[in-house]
Amino acid sequence: MRKQKIWIALALVLVIGAPLFSTGSRQTQTSKRTVSFALWDEVQYPVFQEIVKKFTAETGINVDLQLTPWGQYWTKLDAAASAGNAADVIWMNIFLPKYADAGIIEPIEPYFVKDKLDKSDWSKAMVDLYTYKGSLYTMPKGMDVVVVAYNKAIFDKYGVAYPREGWTWQDFRRIGGELRDKIKSGGGSEYPALMELDYQPSYLQFWLQDGVVPFSPTATTTQISRPEATKAFDDVLALIDENILPSFTVLSDTKGTDLFISGRGAMLFVGSWKSVVLDNASFASRIGLIPMPSRSVSNVCALGGISYAMNARAADKDAAWQLIKYLGGETSNRLQAEGRIEIPAYLKAQQYYIPSFKNIDPTAFITQSRSATVYPNHNKFVEIYSPMEDTAVEIFSKRKTSAQGLKDLAAVIDGILKQ
Questions:
Q1: Which of 128, 254, 276, 395 is the most buried (most CB within 10 A)?
Q2: pLDDT tens sequence across 173-205
Q3: Could you give all domains of the chain from N- to C-terminal order, each with its CATH number?
Q4: CB burial class (10 A; 0-12, 13-18, 19+) of residue 100?
């Protein structure tokens, strides 16, 4: 997930507006209420400028909008929270348990109850994701899913039928093999399939589709040493060995999405966070989208996404809640949907998402979101993620077998979970 790609390093700290994460709700010299709001995505920043402008016009509450790039966001948040001057409203992701346990954010469940909001107005998977210790902690914002994009021009060029909804992993492999053979016999250089071998776009989904939940919020052990977990990696390695996927070196040097957008791949496992990239491609009108193929259990998708959290030390919690409620409502979500930002978690606003695209048909994103499950989470996730990604590199580069790599990883994760 673009917003859940955990350790992307950015060289510069870009802060637009007030100083990073400072200060909380306050009264200005003109006695107007102000609430501060921290986010990390410069692409979404202009849309949120428009949203908070409308919020201020409707409520009279000013918003101090604070942008910090992803690479510095969490470090700055931790420092600001320790100093007691974190923003009142904070973008949050699956790191939520860490900040909830530390008392940095507080549940919004009581505010939902007070204002008689109906949780069923938001995606259940997102509500479940941001419910912690029996209480809804944050307001769901948008959803990330993974689907398969395919280049119709390449399929047509080599006379291969397009994939059809309801397909299986075996179908995917068969189609990839047919493309490989026809590309070779036709003297072409396109790749039959592409994939970004990171946690969310690939092996997390395959684990879940094979019935493997790597950990739960209360787990003290992991399931990833099970044979089903090993199979997910072995299946990807088989695709590489069979020349359906490029080599690990190619996929390491160039992102699968970039290869696809350059016209070099027929199929791509792709996150919905890349939807604008697909819609702006030179051959966008020839891109098809389809839900992922089913593996041994299902084609379920781990639904990720952002939410809005309230600083437990906000000076004006009523103003902070009014902003959170507005951000989670129809006007805010409509503007985000029309900006092709992400699939709204607020169900009534999903109607605005599909018509906002100029070239691709994003219906598959919505379809995939309906076969979603809660993103596996734990308050130790920050510590777990890096060893998982390091192990994936060791396996895909064949420095370790899948069985050995996941056995070693399971021992590391079990140690972390039991701390």
A1: 395
A2: 999 999 999 999 999 999 999 999 999 889 999
A3: 26-144+304-365 (3.40.190.10), 146-303+380-417 (3.40.190.10)
A4: buried
Dihedral sign for Cα atoms in the order 105, 384, 413, 368: positive
Sign of CA dihedral 172, 175, 177, 179: negative
**For 236-261, how does the pLDDT look when each residue is reduced to its tens digit (9 = 90+)?**
999 999 999 999 999 999 999 999 99
Look up residue 148 and give its two tokens: 């398969």
Q: Is the pLDDT of residue 266 over 50?
A: yes
Helices (H), 210-261: 227-241, 248-253, 256-261
Helix (H) or strand (E) holding 386: helix 381-396
- Nearest in space to 68 (alpha carbons), one of 21, 104, 5: 21
Q: pTM for this one?
A: 0.84
Q: Residue 287, CB half-sphere, CA atoms under 13 Å: how many?
A: 33
